[in-house]
Amino acid sequence: MPDLLKRPFGTHGKVHQITPESAGWRYVGFDLIKLRAGEAWAEATGENEVILVMVEGKATITAAGKDWGELGDRMSVFEKTPPHCLYVPNESDWALECTTDATIAVCKAPGKSGHAARRIGPDGITLTQRGEGSNTRHINNIAMENEDYCDSLLVTEVFTPAGNWSSYPSHRHDEDDFPRITYLEETYYHRLNPADGFGIQRVYTDDLSLNETMAVHDGDVVCVPRGHHPCGAPHGFEMYYLNVMAGPRRAWRFVPAPPVEHLI
What we know:
The protein is mainly beta.
């Protein structure tokens, strides 16, 4: 099993590149690109569909033969405003030029030529509370199951207040047994506020054959190949993460860990 915790391997250009091959799985890919104002980037999607998420900053984007204009608004994810995103189908090209310093997430999964390129957000994305008490967090759904934007991808943002838990009660989605549970690989791209803070993420199976607890820092990515995967934000540090999920079926069905099943 490859290491689940991925540190950024730079501060400029492509600082994360997670592929199915490097992660030891079959579906999810995730890149993170950090550019300065005036810099450009271009790629072909190949067999993958892609959602470009303007995590921070602004850029003009062309994709799938169309000029989509300038996307982006927030300069910090912790403004919590809805993200500007662009869906690009497989066998397409995309290119962008940054109009400010920018951080762009490239979320990838197998494409089936089933959906056309389209903008996603900020319209139609509303910050929504989930959970209560110390399990409260806030969600920006970008392309979850109710949004028929993609062939494979499921993408969402989560903001966890300082001192709270998230992706909790612990749950797993690692079997292809719909409608009880679906098999979905998942990446977590973490940010912390203040940026010198830390959070905790545990990835574990019921039998503890996988049982990893990680300190996550600003800019880290955690890969979840199977098992439960709760996160904790210590007092004093707010946590953001961008989730990318994909599997053989575009549906999110999970099973809670037995000790916390009564909390669902």
